[in-house]
């Protein structure tokens, strides 16, 4: 979304206020052109023979977003059997889907085997069970390199006390299990966290993975996960993808020579691909002044966008209705019966009741984390593609809330 001639628009022509008029508020809107440019930027950054970009679909699982990325050439990173099923429904081939669960049952893993997708295991106990049940099925190993990276403790997953991955210090035990059961290891994987700014984190992790990889002679790929940081406001800091591509790409090709053949270089970006392609719009219900604060209360809340409350995440907030208004200081809050605050003491053009506010970077982990808390309906989703708007999810209704409830006759 861009500001042109005093008005916001998508792809040069679509006014978000017209979208609100058509589809209602609150509303998620995604720009396909931005997703495409982010994907192409990542592909261009790495000059390696076999680059594999697997979209981490937990960021945004709308089937149309998945199909767009499949058309661009992406594979799929999934963390649940339900995401696997949605990926297959979206048209991804099983071989292009990597399933990386955590703390799930063998029953669910067996379902993934039945689906024929690639499987990534992060627990020695599960690996032993898997080796007995599926001795001929190749697997990937998720290694915890014990590198503490990420924007905050809730999204740092490579530290020593993380529930994710097999500790690099357990490598001797891991090798014994693999050799004893004859498990074929096709890939080795790490993910240290999200919002990683310093590309040196990936390089440090790479050296750990490369040393571990030498113990497994049948590898097809090495997976570095993702966690690339995106800018949350104008001129904000982000991971230098081009620098990472130069440095890690060169080191990876050198390792492949040491290993004896070319391997696939895999990444699993989610936020990087879809975050700033998404904008969340909500209407101002009330402007309320207290002795110390001016609140702008919206027709939305943590039920639709929980990241500011859950992660203390920053989303830039703009007044789409009155972009040229005199700037004032507002705390933007929601309508949920909790303290649901989107932004504190933000400088925003004057807000009036009925104005539409926009929250940027709403493409990743926003709708996918939405709920029906307070029995509120989840909003609609719209995709902008080639200058046209498409409804890709209807707004929920009361029937949706009650669909799976069963009325028993004793209370009729």
If you had to describe this structure to a student in words, what would you say it looks like?
It is a single chain. With 412 residues, the protein is α/β, with parallel strands linked by helices. The protein folds into two domains: 2-29 and 275-402, Beta Barrel (Lyase, Ornithine Decarboxylase, Chain A, domain 1); 100-269, Alanine racemase (TIM Barrel), CATH 3.20.20. It has twelve helices and 20 strands. It has helices at residues 16-23, 32-45, 63-72, 81-89, 106-115, 124-133, 171-181, 200-213, 241-259, 271-274, 307-310, 398-402; strands at 2-4, 7-9, 27-31, 51-56, 75-78, 97-99, 118-121, 139-144, 166-167, 185-189, 221-223, 264-267, 278-289, 294-298, 317-319, 327-333, 341-349, 356-359, 380-385, 388-393. The strands form three sheets. Strands 3, 13, 14, 15, 16, 17, 18, 19 and 20 form a nine-stranded mixed beta sheet that branches. The protein has an eight-stranded parallel β-barrel with strand order 4-5-6-7-8-10-11-12, surrounded by six helices. A two-stranded antiparallel sheet has the order 1-2. A hairpin with a 7-residue loop joins strand 16 (327-333) and strand 17. Helix 2 (32-45) crosses helix 9 (241-259) and helix 8 runs parallel beside helix 9. The longest helix is centred in the middle third of the chain and has 19 residues, at 241-259. The protein is globular. Mean pLDDT is 92; it is low at 149-159.
